[in-house]
Amino acid sequence: MNGVQQEKIQRHYDDVADRYDHHYDRSHGRCYHTHLSRHIMEVLPKTGLLLDIGCGTGLFVERYMMECGTAVGIDISRGMIRQARRRCKESELVIGTGEAIPFSDASFDAIASLLAFSYMRDPQGMLNEAFRVLKPGGTIAICTLGKKLLTCGVPAIYQIGERMRVNHVVVRDFGEHYYDEADMSTMFSAAGFTGIQTKWCSFAHIDLIDPLFNLARKMEPFVERRLPQLAYNICVNGTKPE
Ligand SMILES: C[S@@+](CC[C@H](N)C(=O)[O-])C[C@H]1O[C@@H](n2cnc3c(N)ncnc32)[C@H](O)[C@@H]1O
Questions:
Q1: CATH 3.40.50.150 fits 3-239, yes or no
Q2: CB-based pocket (< 6 A), ligand 1
Q3: Rg from Cα positions in the chain
Q4: For position 164, what pLDDT does the model report?
């Protein structure tokens, strides 16, 4: 267990729920989110039932339903789930934590989680739960801000932003944690997953001004392949053995 402030996270996302999509579903935000989603989508099965942990307003649930199978979402924020229910009328969307998933063993063909893992108070507990609810042969794929030289200053920036009352949907001091490849592989293995793969993605940051964002977008594939030290989201996938 770590010092993540879950009640604060829940209250914050309740507060920002109705403007979250202005940040992640328009302009730079939509490019960024689509880019991360593609990385996750490419390792997931193209049919079946998916659970999205920390589904937020349902951006990935909607995408998976359009391109692959059916999807269910879970999120601790009532406000975010309310928005997700507006977006994905056909999906089951429940309020709850990824550390105690309210579904039976072996219920899902796939699990995804985007931009939520760093908020888990008990990340190993979440992975153990994910393993439990996945069917044998099922796939999990997570994308989260990773531990890097570039991201080690992020908590301090968020603390300063909070003190200065910066009105931003993710800028708050929640005591969140970032992990590197070794941390993630160790936790995935301890949960029982095999075939674990990690890669770094994204370089064009949502908050960059236009010319820099466009330049970074062009360089993104090169950075991801050749200069992963500049990419700051870690994507990890694994399989539950048959
Ligand atoms: C940055 S948002 C990402 C939302 C969505 N995955 C997306 O890609 O747009 C982080 C989300 O994680 C949710 N969250 C944080 N801790 C959680 C937990 N322990 N269990 C479930 N959801 C959680 C928050 O409420 C919030 O909706």
A1: yes
A2: 9, 13, 24, 53-56, 59-60, 74-77, 80, 97-99, 114-116, 119-120, 170
A3: 17
A4: 74
